[in-house]
Amino acid sequence: TVIFRRQWTSSQGTSSQLHDALTAPSVTRRSLLFIYYYYYYYYYYYYYYYYYYYYYYYYYCYCYNRTDESDLLSKIK
Length: 77
Known about the structure:
Distance between the termini: 37 Å
Number of strands: 0
Order of helices and strands: HH
Largest sheet: none
Helix content: over 70%
Number of domains: 1
Keywords: Membrane, Transmembrane, Transmembrane helix
């Protein structure tokens, strides 16, 4: 099982700053929905990208192993 965990960067602030922004009294329902959907689609894109990368890496290893297997068979022959 491969688990990827999102890391916050300095440009995005800390997770506590995000929590403070979401729970501030001045935050309206509309801005909360915007922030929620923004991060939802950001995470969706992020994990889709890593799923594609992991699939490519798996396929590459599979082809690499098949190549090794064919080389081994040729040596046996």
